[in-house]
């Protein structure tokens, strides 16, 4: 079984999955892509890589947990999406020293459910975990629980636009 842990950059995928017990054999795909040069190009302007999905598929183990903001694009059996309230996400991205433009792009992507919509197109089972008020250990526990119990899909419960609107952070 292959399980994708995905989510907008900054939602805490790497931090949380580093706290999973060894038996889940986590592959940190961003590291793998860099170390094994599984990309077609380096986008210097955006400080990112154009990944080579085919090469990645050929390189990764046959089972385990695969974490990255693109892991839902792989041939996985299940998808777990980490979510984070946009205001909290902005703080986490600042901690990562992302530049203002990258922070804004990612906060916007999280607000409008970009990864969820991409994941839904795969037709694979999806579970979302709201990490906003959880520490990394608690997120790891939720991931573990989701893997073990295989609960029903819970997509669509998170609605950041509505929450921001209620907090008067945006006007619709
Ligand atoms: N549950 C959490 N609560 C508060 N801060 C967190 C939490 N998880 C991670 N962080 C912090 O948020 C930042 C982003 O975390 P992390 O790098 O794990 O995100 P990521 O989803 O792996 O991002 P990327 O897709 O860019 O690799 C880090 O500074 C980390 O210390
Ligand atoms: Mg990461």
From TrEMBL:
Q: What class of enzyme is it?
A: transferase
Superkingdom, taxonomy of origin? Archaea
UniProt GO molecular function: AMP kinase activity; ATP binding; ATP hydrolysis activity
Assembly, in brief, is: Interacts with uS11. Not a structural component of 40S pre-ribosomes, but transiently interacts with them by binding to uS11.
Q: Which reaction does it catalyse?
A: AMP + ATP = 2 ADP; ATP + H2O = ADP + phosphate + H(+)
UniProt keyword list: ATP-binding, Kinase, Nucleotide-binding, Ribosome biogenesis, rRNA processing, Transferase
Chain residues that bind ATP: 10, 12-15
Coiled-coil regions listed in the entry: none
What this protein is called in its record is Putative adenylate kinase
- Entry's family note: Belongs to the adenylate kinase family. AK6 subfamily.
What task does this protein carry out? Broad-specificity nucleoside monophosphate (NMP) kinase that catalyzes the reversible transfer of the terminal phosphate group between nucleoside triphosphates and monophosphates. Has also ATPase activity. Involved in the late maturation steps of the 30S ribosomal particles, specifically 16S rRNA maturation. While NMP activity is not required for ribosome maturation, ATPase activity is. Associates transiently with small ribosomal subunit protein uS11. ATP hydrolysis breaks the interaction with uS11.
Is rRNA processing found in the keyword set?
yes
Tell me the segments the record calls region LID.
Answer: 95-105
| GO aspect biological process, one term | rRNA processing
A Pfam family that this protein carries is AAA_18
Its Enzyme Commission number(s) read 2.7.4.3
Does Kinase appear among the keywords?
A: yes
């Amino acid at each position: 079984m292959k399980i994708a842990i995905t989510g907008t950059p900054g939602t805490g995928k790497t931090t949380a999955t580093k706290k999973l017990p060894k038996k889940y054999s986590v592959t940190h795909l961003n590291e793998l892509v860099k170390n094994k040069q599984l990309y077609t190009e380096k986008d210097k302007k955006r400080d990112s890589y154009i990944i080579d999905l085919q090469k990645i598929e050929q390189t990764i183990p046959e089972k385990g947990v695969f974490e990255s903001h693109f892991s839902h694009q792989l041939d996985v059996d299940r998808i777990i999406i980490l979510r984070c309230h946009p205001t909290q996400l902005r703080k986490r991205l600042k901690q990562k020293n992302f530049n203002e433009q990258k922070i804004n792009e990612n906060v916007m992507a999280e607000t409008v459910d970009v990864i969820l919509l991409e994941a839904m197109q795969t037709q694979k089972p999806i579970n979302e975990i709201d990490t906003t008020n959880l520490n990394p250990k608690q997120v790891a526990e939720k991931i573990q629980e989701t893997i073990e119990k295989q609960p029903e899909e819970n997509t669509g419960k998170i609605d950041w636009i509505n929450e921001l609107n209620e907090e008067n952070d945006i006007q619709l």
